């Protein structure tokens, strides 16, 4: 555990460059801590960009620290409960709270198992997300984020093993990835209400109806190799549960049902329960 903490601390020397090439779970945890102080309003994306650095500088100046934009040990200590402990320094179980929890929430969301807002609190939703990931990864699904689970969370992100058709004739709007303190788990295709929506591939309808979780009128199609495609916020549904389809067959029409700010198709791909970037399959 000492080695893990020391390695994490050493990484802070280069944690906050003006622009980072890749996302990092420690940067995501830092963004969560800064958001709790009202000093960062961007997405929890793990990217050490100018907004994150500016938040660190403002926090350091507020606390009388050297305002160098580097989240070193003194800055992390001043951040309070969300500034510690380092990821990997303990096994995370409910109701843990802290930097490492935020990092694990971020990693789980990036792997397709979001648990709501990334806020550094390991409650029932975070525990359930970890359990789902453990099942996906072939680990013991105990809901505790120990060394094996964290190592698996740091592995490659899942991608679609199948190729799919574009489900609607419309441009891509919001993409898969961080949104605020949460995760947008699909692609949005803005289009006028009534625009036809088609099945993205061959499969059988596993759900067709109203989704109470905010997706509104929704169709889900089960494909081979553990893949499921989902089509949400529809204005109408033209298929029934159990019906088998071929790619390109009409399944409904674009709408704005459920939690939606305007007419669009929300399209998801899931691999054995993991929400994956649909662009890896289109």
Structure description:
By secondary structure, this protein is an alpha+beta fold. The protein has two domains: 2-153, Muramoyl-pentapeptide Carboxypeptidase, domain 1 (Orthogonal Bundle), CATH 1.10.101.10; 177-280, Distorted Sandwich (Glucose Permease (Domain IIA)). 26% of the residues lie in helices and 21% in strands. The chain contains seven helices and eleven strands. The strands form two sheets. Strands 3, 4, 5, 6, 7, 8, 9, 10 and 11 form a nine-stranded antiparallel beta sheet that branches. It has a two-stranded antiparallel sheet with strand order 1-2. A hairpin with a 2-residue loop joins β10 (264-271) and β11 (274-276). The longest helix has 14 residues, at 124-137. It is elongated.
A few lines on this structure:
The protein is of the alpha+beta class and 282 residues long.
């Amino acid at each position: 555990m000492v080695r893990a903490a020391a390695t994490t601390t050493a990484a802070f020397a280069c944690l906050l460059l003006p622009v980072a090439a890749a996302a990092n779970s420690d940067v995501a945890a830092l963004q969560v801590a800064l958001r709790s102080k009202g000093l960062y309003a961007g997405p929890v994306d793990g990217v050490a960009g100018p907004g994150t650095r500016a938040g660190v500088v403002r926090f350091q100046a507020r606390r009388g620290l050297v305002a160098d934009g580097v989240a070193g040990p003194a800055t992390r200590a001043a951040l309070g409960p969300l500034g510690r402990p380092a990821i990997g320094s303990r096994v995370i179980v409910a109701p843990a709270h802290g930097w490492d929890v935020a990092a694990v929430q971020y990693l789980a969301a990036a792997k397709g198992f979001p648990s709501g807002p990334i806020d550094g609190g390991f409650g029932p939703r975070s525990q359930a997300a970890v359990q789902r990931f453990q099942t996906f990864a072939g680990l013991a699904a105990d809901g505790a984020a120990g060394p094996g689970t964290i190592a698996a969370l740091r592995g490659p992100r899942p991608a679609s093993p199948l190729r799919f058709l574009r489900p609607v004739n419309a441009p891509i709007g919001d993409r898969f990835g961080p949104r605020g303190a949460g995760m947008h788990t699909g692609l949005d295709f803005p289009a006028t209400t009534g625009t036809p929506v088609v099945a993205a591939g061959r499969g059988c309808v596993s759900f067709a109806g109203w989704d109470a979780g905010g997706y509104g009128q929704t169709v889900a199609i089960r494909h081979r190799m553990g893949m499921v495609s989902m089509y949400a916020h529809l204005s109408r549904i033209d298929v029934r549960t159990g019906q088998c389809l071929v790619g390109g067959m009409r399944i409904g029409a674009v709408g704005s049902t459920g939690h939606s700010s305007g007419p669009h198709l929300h399209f998801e791909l899931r691999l054995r329960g993991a929400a994956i970037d649909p662009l890896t399959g289109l």
